[in-house]
Predict the structure.
Amino acid sequence: MQTRLSALCFPALLVVFALAGCSSLTTTPVTSSPDTPTPSTSAPAKPGSTITRSESESEFDRLIARQDRVYRVIAPLIVKNAVLCKTAARPLLGFTAKNRYSFPAELRDAAVARLGKGEELRVVQVLEGSGAQRAGVQRGDALLSIAGKTLPLGPQAETETARLLAPLLKQTTEVDVQVLRNEVPITLKVALTTACAYTVDIGNAPHVNAYSDGRRIMVTAGLLAEVSDQELAVILAREIAHNVQLHATTMQMRATMASIIDTLLPPKPDLSGFAGSAGLKTMDEKLDQEADRIALYMLARAGFSPTVAVDTLERLARRYPTTVLNSYSALHPWTEDRKRQMVETVAEIRKRQASKKSLVP
């Protein structure tokens, strides 16, 4: 069960990420409400199923809660930093949508129970600060049409919708989105939101790390379990910065990074390749410093405190030093030079904020 946070349903169109439909992660979610499922029968979800309906719905709720957490943290980073994402910035609808086929077989009945029906695409997450949020798009809305185009149903609804909408969204800044809510059709005028269009995935692995291949970002289950939301923002900002600067390509690691991300998407990935360094080279310190600087500005622009970054990276380096294989510090060694530069950059940002100057590195 992969957890994809990117343009999932409508690649690079809905949001910059679409939390895909599948994940078997066991990370404790930060939000509590989705973790308190409504009562349901304990009868098996289907003949031969190894999990009960109640267990299936609880797992589905945990999945959505994890996705909500990452979505909430990354939202201001990708919306407020479009200008820093250069050519990766795109106009997006500002929500993710899925149907029952977006989820693994064992969670499809739960998806129907929680979201409704199952053949049609339904809104799952709405990007905070987006035109979709301002227009009133809500979780559970069934999508009927976008820009006057009736949307497809069934197993291929996501890819077919992406193909249908791609040319339309390049030609406008606002679209009519017709949804069915409580069996009543509603038409909402949604302004497209320009944001950093990177896919973000949650990898099913216990090690504490994050990866970026130039167009995607992945944070592992182990990392999510280890960090607070503020600390997660630091890691996401750094990975966005690495993508903006094409560091995976510079280090000739793009193919390896992409392979690792693909490997960690399944519910039970083959982790045998992680007995060593998984084929990755340690990031060049100058490239890490470049990412640090850009990430600090991104954090400040998004409303996060950049001072948290130094503490976050220092804490991870102490807890998971470079000697711990496949740890964040093994890939991005923490050094005194990095710390010194980050402290100087934070001071620079504070001066710019005090003088109301533009926060552009």
User: Anything to note?
Assistant: The chain has two domains: 3-195, 204-354.
